[in-house]
Structure formats: structure tokens, C-alpha cells
Amino acid sequence: MTTALSLSFAKEHIKVLLLGGIHPSALQTFKASGYTSTELLSKELTEEELLAVIPDVHILGIRSATHVTEAVLSKGKKLLTVGCFCIGVNQVDLQAAKMQGIPVFNAPFANTRSVAELVIAEAVMLLRNIPAMNAATHRGEWKKSAKGSFEVRGKTLGIVGYGHIGTQVGILAESMGMHVIYHDIETKLSIGNAHPVPTLADLLGQSDVVTLHVPGGTTTKHLINGETLKLMKDGSCLINASRGMVVDIEILAAAVQSGKLRGVSLDVYPEEPTGNGQSFSSPLLALNNVLLTPHIAGSTAEAQERIGVEAAEKLIAFVDSGATAGAVNFLPVVLPPHIGRHRILHMHKNQPGVLAAINRVFAEADVNIAAQYLQTDPDIGYVVTDIDQQRGTDLIGKLKAIPETIRTRILY
Questions:
Q1: Do residues 133 and 259 share a domain?
Q2: What is the reported pLDDT for 9?
Q3: Of 295, 306, 342, 346, which residue is the catalytic one?
Q4: pTM (2 decimals)?
Q5: Known catalytic residue: 295?
Q6: Domain assignment of residue 230, given as a range
Q7: CB 323 within 8 A of CB 316
Q8: Which alpha helices (DSSP H) does 232-336 contain, by range?
Q9: For the chain, how many structural domains are there in total?
């Protein structure tokens, strides 16, 4: 019988490709876990460039500007998993990845503090009219005045989307003496003295500053539009560090010009340049008391370091043990270590009888199952089986032969 050692997929042969200037902490995390065939590129890749390199890649790490399409996934025959070293995952065809047995992971927690701090700083600057005063001073104008300048203490902050970032914003805002209200489509536990309001209209009508922290998609596209802007308090401020399409930019510019809004801060836009050095345009460019930043709310040294570690650890956990907890497109399976056992991963189309067929392979080979884990959704099933015997190639071929099989892999 062939030994387990000769059958093992040695980590030094697993190709890791990290793109877009991902923090070196990711590279360090992979190497510390035994993954030595690693490459870190400072640039993002176009689809054409990615198609050229993906056939040899087992683990792919990207940021927001690299798009992993169905064509890329189909050509990545060795590709085991994709990591988005950011919060957003819109740049990956998640359904295509799932149907090819490729879990996609992201880092949704690592930059929450960085985003929250910037939002609070922007609220202070907008209420103090700092952008307009700064621009005037740069022009050589001296406009020392308290008119139109306010403290944040005692003002009401309305948080739309009370998730990881929204709750952090609320905590920091309360420490500044603000009243915090929030609206979310799901029931969320209040943190501190923040309290929920039943509708978006209620929140917009009460808030001196509104900050948006909602996901992208059709349900949130132009959430802030001509009608919802009318519901906001005259002279209030709007901050968007979520997704560019959440706000109708043309309507927003008109609201600033008319004085309906006294200040606006945007970090995301409906259309963004794909790289540094490219030109950027917006109807807000020439307006006073408008803060525009180039999608950097979560871009601090601390956040990038944490993102590198968080995403890399999830990718390593999957490749090492088959665990998919934290995957954005895959069944969440939390697994214990499999020391002294073989672990077989089987991903398949979710049709009746597949589990029975898998276990029939083990039974006919007289293999004892030490543990088995199963998760399904309407599309796929994921079965993880720990076996005691030193068995491998004779079983994997039979498992692959099950018609519904998408992918199967042995861990030693």
C-alpha cells in the first residue's frame, strides 16, 4: 500500500498568489504555516492577465480591483479557494465559484475601527464647515467666523445599517456626546444608549448627521434619492462609506447646491478609477463643504495588517482542514482537527442519494468512518469524512465517479 506521506499534497507545492499590494502580514501568515511557494504582487491583474496565470494557482488573494469571473474560475483547474483581502466580494462571481467547489473568504471585521474613526472625523469636520473654510484659506481668503459652525455634542447621528461598522460608529459617537439612532432591516441589539427607529424615514427626519453602512445590491441602489433626501432635516449632513450606488450622486449634488444639505462626505462612488493615477470626475468636485476621499475609509496601516492576517488564516484553515466557516458563498462547516486520520472532502450537486453513494464507497472498501459532517443548501452539498485507515487513491477515484461530484480532495 502506498504510504500517506507519499500521497500528501505537500504545502511547499501549493502555489499562493496575492495581488494588489496585500499587506505583507498575509505573506508572513502563509509562510509561518508552511506555505513557501508564495508570490506577492503590488499590482492588480486584468482578466486577461489573470487567465494567463490562474492555471497554476491553488490559493488566490485579491483586493477590490481584480475581478474573478466565471472564465477565470473555469480555467483555474487547481484553484482551491479565493480570498478577498477587503470587505466587499462583488468582484468575484460567487455563484460560479460555489458551483465549482471554490469557497470565497473575505475580511469583514479587520477594518471596522478604521472606517468608524474616519466617519466620526468627517462628522466633526462637516458640522464645523471645515472643508469650505480649508478651501477658502488655500485661496488666500481669511474667513474667521463661528457662523454655521457647530459642535457634535448633543447632535443626533443616524446610522443606516447597524452592522459591524455601524455599531462601532455608534460607540465612538456616544463618547463624543452625540445621540445615536439607527435603522436596520434586521432586528439588532442596541449597543450603549443607541436606539432603533422603525423606518428609514424616521431616521432621516430626526438626524443631524446621517451615515450609511449598508451592502450593495439592487435593494440598496439609490437608497438616498430625490424622495429620501426630502425627508432629511434642512441643514443636515450625509456621509457614505458603504457602496457608491447607494446614493444618487446627481440628486445629491443638487441638494448641496440648494442648501438642503450643509455638508456631504463620500468615500465611495458609482464609478471609480481602476487604479492610481487615473482621472476622477464627480458633480461634487467644485462644491463647498464636501469631503471626497478615494475609497480609503478602511485603509490604515493597522487595518491592512489585520486584514492580511484575518483573510490568510481563513484560507489556510480551509486548505489545511476543510473548514469553511466565514466563507461568503459556501456552506459554513466548522471542523475539529483530524490528527492521525485521513479527511476526505466531497463537494457535490445537492441531489437525493449522494450521501448514501459516498458511504457506499466506504462500506464496500471496508473503511471505518470515524466522523462525518454534512451541510447542504439548495445548490450543493458538502460532506467531510474522517477515516481511520491509511486509504487514499483507491477511494478518491470511486468518489469522483459519483455523477453529482463537483470536487473531492484528501487531507492527510
A1: yes
A2: 67
A3: 295
A4: 0.81
A5: yes
A6: 112-292
A7: no
A8: 249-258, 301-321
A9: 3
